[in-house]
């Protein structure tokens, strides 16, 4: 059982506030989660959540463009943000005596962002995001794999069907009014979780939070997630796509639907992926890389998603002369072999997961982010403290049953990349 202290509060405007005291180091982390990600985007408006993450650093009513970075880094702190399928988060870690600075900056852009929005800023960030898409997706070897896999695993009507970064057309078509509507709808205190962790006095910190965030009015109830959110946990068939591209080596991606992150079965699916392809003692690495020597690298993990299903991903990269069919067949053999998973394999997977979690909570910024996540996903930030017990509770029978139910040929997306010009 972990012992991360957390006191939970809620402001009158609906903002959820978590305070986690740690006096060991004079730093504090400020972590703000908004309940909006790519799943909240309507058709024709993909990429808005990620575009808005960029817009949030373009200044607010009392903070000029780029000044947020300058003030935090000038105080000796670090900051960033990220967009995911189910959320967008903003975070700073800085010396404890600068807590008020971080709260003022975050509150100013939550409450007073719209007055600083301009068409020029929007156009500038649209070009930045377009270039990011070109760099990370369109012009990167294997760069569009996740976009392709999502479209194969989730039906067109599902909110995970499209990528987080969105399409080039939708990004370019966004108007200033579109962005303003997005802000009014999702960037409201009643759709946010604020976590402070580190060297802080709880009463003083809560007073500062109320001073800077308390006057921001709540928004209307957040609209339902668009599209078909409930889907079967099996695709129903094996779907395939083959890409001939400028890639250095042949690669096979294989993905399946598994229970969502808030399901009691999620940890079993996570252990299943860890047994298969995490680390050099995993089944895939031992068999395909070390013993059979048909693969250069292997990997397996689960996307922790909330809406309808998560996604379990495996990939194997072959050598230049590798046959795609051989790589795929080898993957399938290891997947089907999970019916004989050993207790020692499961113990290793549990130990790896537990170690990773313990390392995460040692860093005050990661600790704050985990508390925000458990608040948003489970409505219970203190659930973090019993996470190790849930991981340890996974049994061999659970892993075997999940493998039989979710890793068969009725629940498989297979995406292959072949180097252009290969025979």
- Percent range for helical residues? 40-55%
Biggest beta sheet attributes: 6 strands, mixed
Topology, number of strands: 11
Percentage of residues in strands: 15-25%
* CATH top level label of the largest domain: Alpha Beta
Order the strands across the largest sheet as they lie in space: 1-2-6-3-5-4
Please state the overall shape, judged from the principal axes of the Cα atoms.
Answer: globular
State the low-pLDDT regions, or none: none
Helical/strand content category: alpha+beta
Distance between the termini: 55 Å
Count of domain modules:
2
N to C succession of SSEs: EEEHHEEHHHHHEHEEHHEEHHHHHE
Q: What is the count of helical runs?
A: 15
What can you see in these coordinates?
The protein is of the alpha+beta class and 423 residues long. The chain is 41% helix and 20% strand. It folds into two domains: 7-213, Cytochrome Bc1 Complex, Chain A, domain 1, CATH 3.30.830; 237-419, 2-Layer Sandwich (Cytochrome Bc1 Complex, Chain A, domain 1), CATH 3.30.830. The protein has 15 helices and eleven strands. The protein has a six-stranded mixed beta sheet, sandwiched between helices. Strand 4 (78-83) and strand 5 form a beta hairpin. The longest helix has 20 residues, at 119-138.
